[in-house]
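Journal club prep — side note

Before the paper discussion, L.F. wants everyone to see what a predicted structure for a comparable chain looks like in token form. Sequence:
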Amino acid sequence: MITIDASEARALAAAAPPIGDASPEKIDLSDIPETDFAQPNALRGKHRERFFAATGLVELAPDVRHAFADEDAVNRALRHVLEIAKDVRP
């Protein structure tokens, strides 16, 4: 499996040629039915748990999220915690 970080993914996406003739001006949305999420049977986040489990992503609580400038800051902090935990374990 090939793993790339978010910045590499953004660079690849920006450099990729457009697929087909899918410019927003040329897409016909008239045959796509509208979805009314105000209906009682509409469920927001229906696949959320399965998505997080399948991708290995985690969601940070809002107070934790605001403590970090970006994903690199989160990773540096977690690596630091892992180093401290390694020193504490018997």
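L.F.'s comment for the group: The chain has one domain: 6-88. Keep this in mind when we get to the figures.
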